[in-house]
## 1
Amino acid sequence: MTAENVLPVGVLLSSLVPALIIFLLPEQRHGTRTALNLFAAVTKLVLTAVIGWGVVHHRRYETRVRFLPGADLVLHADPFSLLFVTLSAVLWLATTIYAVGYLEGSPQRSRFFGFFSLCVASTMGIALAGNLLTFFIFYEMLTLSTYPLVVHRGTPESLHAGDVYLAYTMTGAALLFAGTASLYALAGSVEFVAGGSVGPLVAGHRGALMLIFFALVAGLGVKAALFPLHGWLPLAMVAPAPVSALLHAVAVVKAGAFGITRVVYDVYGVRVAEELGVMRPLAFVAAATVVFGSVMALAQRDLKRRLAYSTVSQVSLIVLGVAIVGTVSTIGGVVHLVHQGLMKITLFFAAGNLAEKLHVTRVDQMRGVGRRMPLTMLAFTIGALGMIGVPPIAGFVTKWYLGIGAIEAGASWAIAILAASTALNAAYFLPLLRDAWFEPAETQGGILAEEATLSLVLPTVFTATLSIAAGALAASGVSPLAWAKLIATREYQP
Amino acid sequence: MRGVPWLELTILAPLCGALLGLVLQRAVAVLALVSSLSTAVASAGVAVLVARHGTIRRSVGAWELPLGIQLRADGLAALVLVAFAVVGVFITAYAMVHFEPGSRAARSFFPLWLFAWTGLDALLLSSDVFNLYVTLELTTLTSVGLVATGGDPAALSSALRYLLFAMAGSLLYLLGVALLYGAHGVLDLDLLGAVVTRGPVTWGALALITCGLALKAPLFPLHGWLPAAYASAPVPVSALLSGVVGKCSLYVLVRIWLGVFGVPLGRAPAVLIGVLGAAGVLWASIVACRQQRLKLLVAYSSIAQLGTIFLVFPLMGRAAFAGGAYLVISHACAAAAMFIAAGTIEQVVGHDEIDRLDGLAHRLPLTFVAFALAGVSAMGMPPSGGFVAKWLLVRTAFELHEWWWAAVILIGGLLSAAYVFRVLRGAFVPAPITETIRRSRASDLLALGLALLALALGLAPDLPLALAAQGAPS
Amino acid sequence: MSMRAFLVLTVIVWTSAAWSAHGYLRDAPNRLSFWVFFALTMAGNLGAVLAPDVISFYVSYAVMTFAAYGLVVHERTPAAFRAGRVYVTMALAGELLLLAAFVLLVGTAINLPMGQVPAAVAAAPRRDLLVTLLLLGFGIKAGAVPLHVWLPLAHPVAPTPASAVLSGAMIKAGLFGWLSFLPLGHGTLGTHGSVCVVAGFVAVFFGAVVGATQRDAKTTLAYSSISQMGLATVAIGVGLSSPASADAVFSAVALFALHHALAKGALFLGVAVPVGASVGRRRIRALGMFLAALAIGGAPFTSGAAAKLALHGVVVRSSAAPTLDWLLSLGAIGSTVLMVRVLALALARNGEAAQRSSAMAPWLVLVLFPWLLIVAPGARPLFSWAHVWSSTWPAAIGVGVGLRLCQRPPARVPAGDVLEVVSVAARGLKPTLARLLLASQAAVTRFRTRRARFLARWTARIGRIDRAEAALSSFGAVGALALFLIVVLLLVVVPR
């Protein structure tokens, strides 16, 4: 029972225990609940930092518990898990502050924050999972903890969105279960090992392995919103803004993309997957989703729906980067996990502020909004420009690496996809910016009079700053890009 | 530790409780509780003993085989014994809360239940086919009586139907036993297993015994008596029948197949049973989705879970066997919790119609939480015992390259998610705050306890699985 | 050294424009917005010129390009917004082309110092594609025909100081890009070279012709920029075809850029110089504009003449030297015509409204600075009779034609020329597009209805399960099924 054994579980417990406590707290104890939330978020950050420092210095952190014969529960901190854990921990803190402000005066906050913390705990479990079974267990727990968040408002639209969400995720779960169980049946045990562990089995079981791969990707692709499994995402926008932010930037969608990356690199191994011929179809599906998502976003009049389809498109860039076999495209795909999270959460925070303060929910209501809520719109602008790929915001770094990676791997067609994505993103974001900043508006009071409250503005500006920093300081040693390079060189030798 | 007659105690404790309860009618509830706790302790003792020393055999009255009655406790029996005892304690406690103290229902429920428990424990520890018959009969008859304690016409008619079907089943079973005894002259399972060979006698016995037990288990499509019985019986009875007592016939079938019929007759009949079980899973899950009443929904859910357990037959192997055992004990906890939750709802609002449950969660938060957690196990989602069982079964199916069983289990899981969430989604609808009803939280806490138990089974499965593995087939 | 010229021109033009804008926008609304975008664009422009490696270049270039939008739409009129839309669309296209080019260029090195770029391009496996992308990408910024359509819309509609930097400094960034990235002197690209030369001359004449028809000084100036950029394109084309001329091309294009930036900047700012004041001021303004116009027109002893001389030096090394030389001279006629038109339009109107005043000082700097080039060493040939003659006769013809046109102005070609043709065609497409949209929406609705009906049908079918279930609880059914089960079990278990 050393520190190395306990820390991974500690990261998990830092949101699990508060979740359970919050469920038991009476509804009126707002202060206690907020304090508990913040304390938990900070604790998690501290633990993450400790583990991160250790991983950089080649320490091993693993919690292993006997579960079933032939299958242990393993929590393991490698650089890739740390990437996701850090992203989630930082964004959870921001989202908690945001949610406290956003839900001021709403009913059922104990229930909300309880499931909120459970959701984060599940995400931590997914990130730290050391084998496919552990991953699956926490993946399903994520579904169970996010459903109550989606239906939180209890309106007929929310319930319908929850139904669709369940229909998709449960079907995905069945496929993922089938894939996992059959892989375990085939291979005995499926630990996450750099370079994959399935290689020796290719000889006799090509067809089975291909089928299993598609089952796994389909199951994970539901959460990652790959076409045509994305249908739940735009509907889930009826949830309160902190939920959308969490779902899209941190937890659910990222978990799917993270899972696909894990399967390709640590279960199958990228060389084996290439040899099996499954990377091409994956790349095509991802590319199709990139284009499809952006085209659909263009047609949306509701702001959050437009952002939802934008997520569909952007997350598939991660999968595209993973599906194109090459070190540079790996770096691009993995780093986009972080970059897309930062930029998208900024956009959702800003959209939430707009809805809360100015009741702006449609894109044609954005005239002159820049004047009335300058800080929020500045953050929105940064996020939007980042999505388009304007340097020096983080999205540009991704596009650069993905472009180079595509050429390196001989998949130059992907550059056309990237170009199309950039053009379409511009088509549906730039008019919003134009309307917001260059149209007149009547302002009441001073320059910040109509700006959202501090607890809503602060996280928005914070994540926007991180988006710029991740791009502008990408060459420094502490950027997400540096971490992605570390992952690519240390773990994957494609 | 060794010297204490744990096996006998598990049978005697409920028996004494029942007999005393018939006499001391005023204190029957307390007596029942004491008795159930003692039984639980005894069962725990058996489990510890088996865990340490492997299969235990005890000859009653020091009469040896083949004349005497032998009690045998292997891993499976011990695990199920302990699990059922724990659930039984919970249900007894709930019954104390549910029934009016001193009412006629209470006075008939507790003794009947304790007699049923006696039969149950004796059944679990039996090792010969006739003893199995006797204990099965005892359990069945007391179950019929339990269903009838409701007293209303619906309960009585469903109890009667249950009785007729169960009797038919028992007779078929007896016929089969008679065939075997006539042919081989022995009743003990191990001895029979040694002598049984292929031939018309064995085939006939197999067909009769299987069909008879299929009527009682129940196996699709012979399950017609169950929903009405479970829905019209009092809530503690439903909880008992679906969780505990109702598993007896299935257990007997497993024992006889493993002990007697398994090897000589090949896999074909096992596959047939598997097919029927699969059909039951799908059929019952679909019907459950269409139910209007909560108790009927839970009843059909139980049929579906039973169907899944029947899939152990074609998948026979150590892992599948463990999975089936795990499903038995998880479902015991989960079904009991779900019935208790349903009963609480019915008690508070006077109906259990699913479409009218909107917004109730604010008045009954703990109840819905208990139902939700139990539902997690019913759906086979992690972390729960149901998931562990599902994993073991699905993995075995893939190991045998018979993916269709896995497909059935997974589709069943999807359908169960549909009906569980159908109940739960109404919980999120905001409702005007009405007056809070003053009632005891006990039933909620008991349901919650059972549901948490189902969840806990999912967190540390290696211990129970190790127990089940004692003496299990490879 | 020649690259330093770009830095010099950028600094001077931006500084003068900023100084001028201070007065120009003294009481304007939205001036905070103007200054923000002005500062960003300037930062981008400077960064692009000073960038040490490809990524820094791209970052600065992108900031410059996108921030310029704010300058274009500053006036917030419908025309400004339309110009902005066209500008952003084309700028975005340019960014994408450049991104593709840069990504192809750097490869797994991720980044490349600017000095190594031309050699890397020459050595690249897909050199031709790369050069095409670079030519097109920077061509959009430089206003090369037919990628120029944004320029005549954007430059006039911006506030005058912004127009000065747009035409003065920003399009030179395109030239700078060409010079920095193209493999001049590192190999022969005959096809690309010829295309550039042709396109360049097309731009020279097209710009002159269309520009002559304009009724507004700033639009005419915009077309003049297009025409002048055509000359630089020609030089680049020659450089691509004959690697030996690379050095000459560098110095010629750099000198040309410097001269044009300053003179064009002066002309634009001159449009905004206040004339409501004294007669003296008006006279100085007229004189200054005249001097700057002379420079653009290539009159003898001007910086324009120096630039022309340098271009002549480049053209001489190409294979079609005599033809190109003639064309250059003809082009000079066109430039002069445009300058006459500009002077006529700008000076006749008394400048702009009185409140839009701007200081004279910065403008004077721009006017006078180019004349310094005259005294630079290497300007001796300027003073040779041959050169004086070769620059005088086109100018004379041009003045004549220009004055004639002022008396009988021709029909105005709408600014954005080619774009107008495209727009008309697109408008023709609108009903078709609308019909397509309706059709696809109808298809989606049809699909949804069919899916709903399918689900309803199957739900109804499954609903019949209730009756079957009820039937299963009857004694008859159970009995029959039980017997059936026994029979089946026997069948299954008995071997054949």
## 2
Amino acid sequence: MWCDLDDEVGVEGCGDAFEQGSGSASWTESCTTAMWYSPGMEASAAIERINALLDASGPETSNTSMRIPTALRDAAAFAVRELGVASSATALTSAALRASLEAVVMQAALDEHYAHHPQARPDLGDLAVAAAEIDGHPLAVEPERLRRAAAEIAGHHPDASPDDVLLWAEARALPAA
Amino acid sequence: MTRLVVLDNEAVQAIQDPLHRKHRQVMSHAQVVAIRKRSAVAIKIVIPAAVRVEAGWDRTSRAWVLLNRLRIADIPLDAANANTAAAIRSRTGVSVADVHLGAVIQSASAEQITVITSDPGDIRRVAGDKNITVAAI
């Protein structure tokens, strides 16, 4: 292990701190040791590397100097002790971090695919239909109604989620009182 | 609540091939899973090993790069699943891939199971009494 989590650690080293904001990502240099990727690393290679690290499920662990807000640490400890949400605060933190990274890398893989195949990118209507199908929502059998709802909501709320569309379509389907 | 999304052979083919007529549809399912994961929903996509074999999905091949990156977990055909699958096959006569899929459904502990499939009929047959959601493609 070459550097601590404040420097964003890889198994074989570390690189630049990766900061993800609202829909955009930026890199800030902070590591003083050898990098396993460069700031200009292809997203594709980063996805591969993160996936490989997530798949490496060996027993090796590391102490880190990762700094987290004290209140958050205390909340995690309290949740473990009083609610039994995990075997330890460390286990809770690791699980949350893994889930977060899996979400990030999955979206990065999809985004890269959309960049090469723009026609594959689903629109809000497609996503609403897919969400309904995954959930077994009654409106899954009415995809055109969902697409209309998506078109209506997208005009006013460009950041609407597929679940927002389902809710809107469901409300629109209710008989007037 | 944990949710499981299981892919069948055609769902795999549809993701793998950007020119497949159902590509965008199944990409929509994958995108919804990604959105849900980002919202901290306990949801994951899995592939029964026998379905992966039937689909020809070799994780060491660059031809399968997108699927390899989507955090889709293999469910092995272990001894317990093989027994369940054999019983399903005796009862239904459907393909080995589909009976493995049935065994995965029947042994899953997830509260909600969704199968993305081009053959809803066979999937309901192999699911037995298990309550599942079928997303037909």
## 3
Amino acid sequence: MSCYVGYWWGYILFEFRFFEIYRSSEYLYLILDGILISSGLTIASGFFGFIIAFFLAAMIYWKFSPLNFLAICWIDFIRNTPLIVQLFFVTFGLPLIFEYVWPFWAHALLALTINFTGYFGEILRSGYNSTPTNQLEAAYSLNLNKITIFRKIVLPHTLIKMFPSLSSQFIFIFLTTGIISEIGVNDLTHAGLYIDSRTFRTFEIFIILSMLYVTLSLLFKSSLEIIFNRTLKKRM
Amino acid sequence: MQDLLINIFDKPLGIILTQLILATRFTIYLSLIAFLGGGLVAVIITFLRIYPSKILNYISFCYTWLFQSLPLLMLLFIIGLGIPRFIGQDFDPWYAASISLIIFTSAYLSEVWRGAIMAIPSGQWEGGVALNLNFTQTLRFIIIPQVYKYSIAPTVSFLIQIIKGTSLAYIIGFQDLMLLGKRWANAPVIGSEPFIIFPIMAVLYFCLCYPLAIYAKYLEKKYIIEN
């Protein structure tokens, strides 16, 4: 497939040559690998990030005295610095201080998890605080203890109310994960840059990558919606 | 400033700090360009989105949908690396970075502002019809004065996203805080190791973003109390 765009004074301005990309099966495998690694890393770090953020937000909610302040500082600091600076610090700074050697994907996983904890922590914190007060008063009058109140009343409210913002934040961070290619992880963007350096069809390969990213984010969005409908919607 | 910083810190760190602080101004310029340009485009897109015409609504919906689900990195690559191949000419990283950030900003801001307009009760629109105002007049005299208080806090907190987004522009060769910091971190100078440089950069970005975060929180509280 090749098509021309525009003639100007007899010159061909640009010729789209998408076949350069799927001519070699190596490139297709690279792209497939990239899709798997990108989405796998995002899902894994989102999962770990959610668990850590859950405890961070719980610390702030229960006013767990010194840790409470630290958790607020952590969340604010993560939310106000770019992911790429965190990624570079985790990849190039921390191994020099603590002297360990990890594969690249592990550094990327750690950095993405750190980033997820900040954003998810903020969302969960505001969710915990937005529990209706009359429900909490009813629970106090039934003499439920703190943990039962948290488990049976605060948590379901938070998850149902905050699921849309959690999922949109997840997708937003998925769209920024392309920068883990900067440290050498073989993700989708890295595949694109590799193919670009071999074929010099920059414009075509990045259009195809954008389409792949859009499709993947749509897939994530719809699957998260299905999970929401299956698990939490009947409790609304 | 350089002499002062060299006096306080030692030789390499003082020079590095001066250069990083001076490079921060390009980050600020790029964020301002993205915010102002993106705001202008977003005004047009929001207007088309609520204008009573099916086709214009659909076009602006497609614009916001497409550029919201497209990564900023891909926009930077297409505009910064792809367009020069497409037109067969060099393209200044300033233009490429500004254009892609403007597109990114406009898609998100128009969604924020549309949400704010949708939050206004429909009785206000009907009141405009009852007073025999046309669409633009209703928007100008009734809706926009009320939209302000719904939209100002999310807009300020989106500015943080823009400032963080400008850190990606170094990939296409835009000279800002990020590129200079990375160059220093790679330099074989004792005292410019990655675990010193990257925290300094994080603190600089934090100093840019955190006041905005506090301001957004203050605005949110203020308008919630007013309502």
## 4
Amino acid sequence: MKLRTNALIGGLLVATVTAMALLSVIWTPYNPLRLNLRMRLKPPGNLHWLGTDEFGRDILSRLLAGAGASLLVAALTVLVALLLGTLLGLIAGYFRGRIDRVMMVFNDALLAFPGILLALGIMVVTGANKYGIVLALGLAYTPTVVRLVRGTVLSLREKEYVEASRVIGNSELVTMLRHILPNCAAPLMVLGTSMFGWVVLAESALSFLGLGVPPPAPTWGNMLSSGRPYIESAAWLGIAPGVCIALTLLGINLLGDALRDWLDPRMEPR
Amino acid sequence: MSSSFLLYLLRRALWTVPTLLLVAVLVFVLMRLIPGDPAQLILGDAGTAEQLADLRAQFGLDKPILVQFGLWLSHMASGDFGHSLSSGEAVLPLLLERFQVSAAIVLVAVGAATLLAVPAGLFAAWKQNSLTDTVIVAGATFFLSIPSFWLGLLLLLFVGLKLGWVPVVGYVTFSQDWRAAASYLVLPVITLTLIEMGVLTRMARSSAIETLRLEYVTHARAKGLSELRVLLRHVLPNAFAPTWTLIGLVLGNLLGGIAVLETVFTLPGLGRLLVDAIFARDYPVVQGCLLFTAGIYVLVNLVVDLFYPLFDPRVATS
Amino acid sequence: MNSRMNARMPAVPQSPPAGQGAPLLSVRGLTLRSAAGTPILNGISFDIAQGEVLALVGESGSGKTMAGRAVMRLLPSQVRQTGGTITLAGHDVATLPDRGMRSLRGQVAGMVFQEPMVSLNPAMTVGAQLCEGLMLHEKIPAQAARERAVAMLARVQIADPEGCMASYPHVFSGGMRQRIMLACVMLLKPRLLIADEPTTALDALSQREVMQIMADLTRTSGTAVLLVTHDLQLVAHYADSVLVLKRGDQVESGRAGEVLRNPREAYTRSLIAALPRRDDSRPAVADAPPVIEARNVAVAYPGAHRLFSRQADKLAVDGVSLAIRPGEVVAVVGGSGSGKTTLGRALIGLLPLAGGEIRFRGQPVGSGGRQDRRDFRLACQMVFQDPYSSLDPRQRIGDIVAEPLNHGEPLTRAQRRARVDAMLAEVGLDGLGERYPHALSGGQRQRVAIARALIRRPALVVADEPVSALDMTIQKQVLTLFRQLQAQHGFACFFVSHNLAAVSEVADRIVVMHQGRIVEQGSVADIFDRPQHDYTRALLEAAYVAPGQRAPLSVAEDGAGSLALGAAAS
């Protein structure tokens, strides 16, 4: 029951945001970049359903476009982290011994950089743009994936069906690819969902700090950031993007919970 | 204190050395990846040709890279982090000063969050699937889905501006006027506490649920112990271990993430220092922040791991 | 710290006046259902008199564990009592308020659980756990509690009671933990002990020890016992009366000796028939050069090289020589740590040797070229112990069984299909090729494992405790299947087991291992009738088999089970 509710609400939220993002590619009420200095800082009304910002740009349109930006960055980042992390984690778990030890020392050192610090560091080098963020955040989250995959691989190696695969004549490589890798899918899915949420949050935080996608391209983070000075006079500037981020995160979290619950009893055979 | 436990402490403490070394290597490499002449980057535009040559010699920029690293490392290790390009201050004292602000917020918030989250999670687990449980989980999920800077902004708006209960801008150190200092920190601390409560409550709850299923809990009940005693003496210590690890991760995350809250509330903390330095291309400060923060995180993890056997004695004897 | 919590424990509520012969525990029509509605127990009834031992016997799914829990009102939240009454020491368990129930627990009824690894709190010292209940119920000071705890630990034969008190549970072996559990429960002097499969998770030798300690303790203190078990040997040797359960239904009950000697119901008869029976009619094995031979083989423990280790590397297998002829079934028995499983894995090349050599069909393994190594690998297969982890949950049954066919001569699709279908039919699983492992029962999964091992008609099969994880009647089925296939296909077999009695049905030759070495070997008759080594004798005793005994169960002539120590031995 709880599973159903979580999945439903979460799915609904995520679907809405995705729809927003997809919609924004083909149509928005107004051009998100178009300035209209005569309509600056208008509160929500008939013409502009969510009001306008300090340059007269329509907030609703910018929100839609921002959805696209956030989701795209998050999707690419998660992809990078999952692919790179899985590859490295598989290598570490497969070879073990010295290679594994060296890799783990590096991994731990990378993990020693808390949260977005590593991303910040990398962005010092890459500069602040869409691809810089993907690279920076992707690399920053890779060590987490490596750790998960390596741990899963190591525990799967102890399973008897992995031993059985060797006994029936399969080489180590075939065993890894046919028996171990597919069984990593479940924990990877759960991690991937959580990570998607973290990345959306991190990207909006970076944008808020001014280190993300640079204006005038709208992201929810930089919309919040530019709305800050007007918090008292034009509160809607700060509220709308925040609501979007919060609802997106809520949706992702709920979906992640539902996913975890769904996978859990199935994996337990008894 | 058994010998295997001491061995565990020693092994764990020694492990931090190669990690710290690698962290230093990573920071060094990162800084060298920045396009431009390293000496120029350090001195900025104001350097004269003489100073540049001087610096180059000092850092051995004409020597092999390993030697450069060695020289750099010796500077860092002796506490010489260089000087800020923007303000000219020595970097390390600046870092320490800013760190106090960030640390104050983070430690108080995480401490408060833990004190609230653990009982809440335990209670929710005990009453699993009841209305109370659903409410607690919903609340926790809600709070952890809110971006901290937005919550901070909202609190600033309503509590600070509209209600005027606390000041919104400014900061004084505790030594100057502790009442005022506290009032500046109230909102950021509350914001952070609420959000971290979300994360910690969920973890406390799920590990308590796992523990409640285990046989030694039924055994404790079979001895005739009251539910309260069972929860406090048998469930809590065992269920707490994963939450304790999470606290370490949370503290670490906040070392980086606190930057946003410091920006919202304009507090002179470490996070904001880093962000400002990045904008200002103040590379000595950037480098110092990275090194310092990562180093602190390694120490935090060490402390977390050292206390872990308190909650799970099995770890120390592997 | 906890005086406040201890203070208000009420004394055991006054029992309503009862007649002299009133039973200690009286259960009538007990019905349990899960929250989803599935029935767990359907109206069972029994009595336990003071000092009596009642065995609750059944396989998995019989509901016997829940019956034990219901008596103490410790049912998990998804199980509910929907009918019947439980009267414990005159009190109606269902209507007792929480406080009353708590005072009954521990003092009137105590419980010992099955899994010693998880039944003690890993974060509390043994001493704290022992004294906790004692101080709570009897309100004695800490020092007095400690002394009694130490005395009780000595009674359960813990070597260093003082040291034990200060240690954490995880440093002890399974057998020791069960004894600590026993001490913990008996310390409170309960009138009824509920023992839920107390020895199932233990080593064969520890099982007998722990049961004897339990029998001794309960007899001297006059404690009644509700023994929940699947093991008929325990019923025969320790129980006064027995109640047989099948899927929640009460099938048969009565005096233990009576029921075991003259079972009335078909199910009870099938349980007794499931006990391993010595098979002396096996044809002699043809004398031929051995299929596989181990010469002075030594295998080290995995991960034996520790950074600070100073002791000499202990060997899991130390100087073992063994030869198996074609078609011969060699059963290897021993306790945990004997090296039997390690030897099996080393024989087929899964583990590196630290010394000695293995010869396959006369040639040393590893000396030949790639083709020889390949032949060796394919001719030696293995059936694993755990049906729940030996099959890849993501593969269909048909694919699992077909996978070994990838090596060797290439087959067309149709040929593969045909062979897989034929193999599945042989193990009695026809038509199940499209299913996934999680849809199959434990017994069915083991059949799949056997099919996978046999599809390439190997010369040697290493069977690592292939039926240990299964229910008794299923064990019998799978073992019978295995014997059949072995007789039909004639493969040699290295059969590992911890239970000496169980191998008497399949073995041509028995090898007894202890701490990495072979201590005795011989035919079934040699080992069972004329055991030479002390360890062999100990194993026989642990399996409740007296030398020369033919019948699987030795029940005393007067029909009464026996609590007296050593009554079944010598």
